[in-house]
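--- STAGE predict ---
source: upstream dedup step, 1 unique chain passed
mode: sequence only
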Amino acid sequence: MPHEEPLPFWLVNVPRDQWPAECPDFLKECGEKDKSIIGTPDSQYKKLGWEEVRHLISINRVDKFHRVPSELRRYRQFTHRLVKEYGSIMNFIVNERLQWKTMAPKGQPFECDDDIKILYNDWPYGIDPNIIHLVVWTKFELDEDAVTGLSTPESHRQIDDFVARTFCTKMRPANVAWFKNWKSLKSVHAVEHFHVMLYDPDPEFIKEITNGDVPMTAKFP
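--- STAGE serialize ---
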């Protein structure tokens, strides 16, 4: 039998009748890590369960969170379009997703509700579908250690307290986990945010806490 050459990464997970003639513009600047992920068949990708998610957060290996290959492809296509239409991802986040007229906080960290908005993560990682991935956006800064890039003990405590009173009063604490991306992992640098993962929450609670938000992955074709 003749040897079959592997597909270029940009054709993997694409139906044959939809194959582009050349690598799409939105994939031409891919780094090696994204090329490797996008070039993996979805059928070979293993989604993370809740215990795996909690473990990675507990050992601060959030760099191990990856999107499903076909979802990463869609994410890169979406962000490529955003930069063309809005100038930057940040402009889209602030003006369309957050709809904040000003980025000036009204109070100290977690003091005013108007300084905080909880939305779905628009492009969640490859995780158990029973895990809801939210992003808490804030107008105020959350201090980081200048050397490690990690949260300072004080900002860690502030986030922990907020998560406890916002989420852990509504569901079992064992089903709640949060993390703040290292600077090198952030896709949006200019707007402060951290991530909250919830295992099997009440859909009505999520609807209430996000004000009926719908993630962009559900809207983007």
